[in-house]
Amino acid sequence: MQALIKSFSSANYYDPQNPEAHIPTERDELGLIRAVAVKARSSSQCKELFLRIKSEGSSSQPQTPVVAQRPQPRMLPVDMVVRWSSTFMLAHTGVSLKDSIQYFVFQMSTAEKDETKRKKLRELLLTDREWANLKEFHDILMISDNAQQAFSSETYPTLSMGIPALEAMHAGYTRKCRKVSARLHEAVDAALSKIEDYYDKTSCSDAYLVSMAVNLDSKFKHLWKHWTKTMYNETIALLEKIFARRHKELEGQEHPSTAVNKRSSKLSLLMQELDSSDEESEKDEEMVDPLAEPWKKDFVHWMAHEEIIPEKMDMVTWWGLNSQRYPIWAALALDHLPIMVSSVSSERVFSAAGITISKCRNRLKGDIVEALQVLKCAIRKDLIICLPMPSSLLEDILEDGENTEMEMNKV
């Protein structure tokens, strides 16, 4: 998205080492909003003035409705060159607080006694046309922001959203290209070119397709709906090869003497019940050629049937619990679902480590920092004590405890 931003704005980003370099020499909507954001944070008086205007509202004009009903930050953010999403938030906040920003600049310029400085402050006021341009740029960049939100997470797998998100972005930018002003055509074309580059790179790895296949919520529904029949069949054929290869690898790891593991009687009975009463398995046997490869039945069964994941259960846990039913698919799922599709979790780790390693704790060694981070995560995520899942075994234990308590009360 940096290509889109650079095509729209040539203004410099804020540099604390050179505080005046970010002020645009030409009329640049994004540069003007950035300059106002820096000005609003330049002193405690400016910050207090901006927050007061924001809370009270401009006395001259009614407030502009909040764009897309997103929560407004307390202050105007200052964006960074390394994070395009920060530039989107700057544009979003600027459009949302249009009237407050205009009134803030007006108040600052009115209070300034120096004529030269007052003139420079007045130049930060955006015209109606410039506000319209900023709003148009914001709406375009929101397509990328929505896509980023779809596959950015630190708590659940999102790789399966990679291809759908890129295709949705490309479709959104293509539609925008027909509607935007001529000035933004170059910026949208640059964004489309960058999206196509990233999309082409997805063909270099099978992980995107496998992660879609093992996603319980979607599987290949997106490909079936949006891809041609020929492309879909080619993808299924590729997935069959991957599945057959993994089946062969797992079969080679099994030994006759250890193929049958010791299981509890309850688990053995459950497996027998599934094998004997599952009508869907009988349907699969009818659908699959008896002379087909041994892995074909499992492949067709998974692709043709829908599984419902229980509420509040994550996908990785579901695959762990169902690895006996779908051993090959579970092996593929546990290999591909942990693949990171965004840097959110890594950034969160660096940020959390920065809080742990303070000026008073700057001599901690790596193993100590690692242990502290793990402990902090375990405490905040309630991972130290995990309550058991509901089961008949748990019911028996609770019932025994109640009986023991009743016996003690009788005595």
From TrEMBL:
<dbReference type="InterPro" id="IPR012337">
    <property type="entry name" value="RNaseH-like_sf"/>
</dbReference>
<dbReference type="Pfam" id="PF05699">
    <property type="entry name" value="Dimer_Tnp_hAT"/>
</dbReference>
<feature type="domain" description="HAT C-terminal dimerisation">
    <location>
        <begin position="303"/>
        <end position="376"/>
    </location>
</feature>
<protein>
    <submittedName>
        <fullName>Unplaced genomic scaffold SPHSTscaffold_69, whole genome shotgun sequence</fullName>
    </submittedName>
</protein>
<dbReference type="InterPro" id="IPR008906">
    <property type="entry name" value="HATC_C_dom"/>
</dbReference>
<dbReference type="GO" id="GO:0046983">
    <property type="term" value="F:protein dimerization activity"/>
</dbReference>
